[in-house]
Amino acid sequence: MAAGKPLAVLVDAVAGKIRGEADPSILISDVTHDSRAAGPGCLFVAIAGERFDGHDFVGLAANQGSPAVCVTHFVEERVPQIIVEDTRMALGTLASVVHGEPSTAMKVIGITGTNGKTTVAHYLSSIGAKAGVKTGVVGTIHTKLDGETIEAVRTTPEASDFQRLLAEMRDKGAELVAVEVSSHGLTLGRVRATRFAVAVFTNLSQDHLDFHGDMETYYRAKRSLFEDYDVEMAVVNIDDPSGRAIAERHRGELVTVGHGGDVEASSVQPLGSSTSFELRTPWGDSQVEAPLVGVFNVDNAALAAASALACGMGFEQVVAGLEALDGVPGRFEVVSGSDPILVIVDYAHTPDGISQVISAAREMTEERVIALVGAGGDRDRGKRPIMGEAVSAADLAIVTSDNPRSEHPDEIGRSVLGGVEDRTQVIYELDRRTAIHRAIDEAAPGDVVLILGRGHEPFQEIGDKRLPFDDRLVARSALQLRRMSAETDLGSGSID
């Protein structure tokens, strides 16, 4: 990591004013928004949040040894104070400067959109690994570099943590970092002062309206990555209406992906556990057979390929990477083995995501598709009945609990259930474990069972508790019981 920067340099970087007795040459070696992490050499930035105001903890930071703090107004504490208009927006700049502007030392790819961010990021990591490019990932599932992983707390870390993380990756030799950039992260300035070699747009559909209020505000948050940040190249999915609008507005370097775009995947042919498609790009064309399933994952692969090519990777390297893609935990993850039914766990928790996953399952069977869904508590309530509409495309819909948080599970479930079409066969079972077992028990040979909404998550949030619950483990347990039951029936000579 960088040795630090003089206090005077930080004041200039955020156009701040200094109050209190301060030595302008004192070195600041770290920045934090968490007073508990404050200490010698660490600048504490006071941010007003939903529950707490960091200005109330300036004294604690000073007592722990912080040589200076950053505030929006003077606080009666004996510590030098940098006064700025907006500490949240200053946080990223301060952290970037302290850590030596790490995003300028490697290629950072920022990926935004409602669905597909995690998959595109992991596909980029897989392509990079195959090409021998040291690649990091920052996102929903975890932060990863060279096989070393850290469980993620949020999709896009707070600005001080994010810049410190980029600096650590730089110091470990990372050449490329794929970052999931959430709409919350953009609105709250978590990726401020970051240079993006490539900014990627996947798609936009209803989600997070509890935070943004309406779709236009949500869209503007996503669009801001391409208009308000230092972006060298934009890679945009023009099959999505919002993507087309972003592409039309963009005035910098642009690679369009989709039908009629600069990069296009066509002649898509499902092949069981893999998919064949023709990849056409300005860097070359090739027939590709990649270990992925579903048209939506072909779209994600095309976005990852376009991003890697835009970063300077060779076309043959990218194709080789596509053909050696690693699976993404909890993203269309097959958890059944040689079972006569196919069971898939996926993170789909938006109406559009549910529709895409059910459509992909239809490609894999001529029998029934059974889909289990629930909606998260304390989140966008408006999308719940629309999720019910989306799951109506299944032959059997099972509505259950997801992460109810502080809400009553039945209130959430009834809202989803209200959107399910009358023609759809439906089971309402709020106990998620029972519901997963029921979905697998209801399946006949050849059926596809989709367990949707939580993907890789190892906990279920009920009230203020996080209880161990992994859909994949529960599904495997249910499959094992199904096999044991089948063996018992065979042993007794029973036939159905």
SSE blueprint and pairings:
Blueprint: E1 5-6, H1 7-13, E2 17-19, E3 27-28, E4 30-32, E5 42-45, H2 58-63, E6 69-71, E7 81-83, H3 87-98, E8 107-112, H4 117-131, E9 135-138, E10 142-145, E11 148-151, H5 159-171, E12 176-180, H6 183-187, E13 195-196, E14 198-201, H7 209-212, H8 215-227, E15 230-231, E16 233-237, H9 241-249, E17 253-257, E18 264-270, E19 275-281, E20 284-290, H10 295-310, H11 315-322, E21 333-334, E22 342-346, H12 351-362, E23 369-373, H13 384-391, E24 396-399, H14 409-417, E25 425-428, H15 432-442, E26 448-452, E27 459-462, E28 465-468, H16 471-491
Parallel strand pairs: 4-5, 5-6, 6-7, 8-12, 8-14, 9-12, 13-15, 14-16, 16-17, 22-26, 23-24, 23-26, 24-25
Antiparallel strand pairs: 1-3, 2-7, 9-10, 10-11, 18-19, 19-20, 21-22, 27-28
